[in-house]
Amino acid sequence: MKRFPRLSRLSRGLLAGTAVLAALASAAPARAGSNDAAMLALASHSGCMTCHHIDPGGKGPDGLPPVGPAWRDVSDKYAGQRGAEDRLTATVLGGSNPYLSHWKGQASGLAMPPNQVAISEADARRLVKWILALGPTK
Q: 40: Cβ–Cβ under 8 A, 6 or more apart, which residues?
């Protein structure tokens, strides 16, 4: 690695290993359980956990219920629906219309803001695939 002449051999090895792991993580299909930590880190970093929880009935750090629907409820609602991944990815990136909310009584009814500034389309799609694979609460 001539691009980083000041890095030690160990540092270059760690850098290369990190790059390989990142490439593998982005190429791996999003399955619930297979990469929960990576998806939760992505969701937290992107601000998703501010409004959503994984399981229904949870409370946030402020003691209030989540603003948005629980992801297991989302997974259950969209299970087996054609085009769900594309629709939900578009919602994550572009936001939702509060007047067309289909989560009345289950979430606050506030609109989901557009998130294309906080998360890339590829990462939003990976997160949506993971959410859809969660399945209902057991």
A: 49
Place of tokens 């989560």: 103
Instruction: List strand residue ranges (DSSP E) for 14-107, in order.
Output: none
**Between the CA of residue 50 and those of 7, 36, 43, 88, what are the distances in Å?**
38, 17, 9, 18
**Helical packing angle, 84-94 and 121-134, nearest 10°:** 130
CA dist 111 and 136 (Å) reads 23
Exposure string for 96-125, b = 16+ CB within 10 A, e = fewer: beeeebebeebbbeeebeebeeebeeebbb
| CB-CB contact of 70 with 55 (8 Å) | yes
pLDDT in tens, 67-105: 888 899 999 999 999 999 999 999 999 998 877 777 776
pTM tops 0.90? no
Q: How far apart (Å, rounded) are the C-alpha atoms in residues 52 and 63?
A: 13
The sign of the torsion formed by the CA atoms of 42, 44, 48, 52 equals positive
Tell me how far apart the terminal alpha carbons of the chain are, to the nearest angstrom. 49
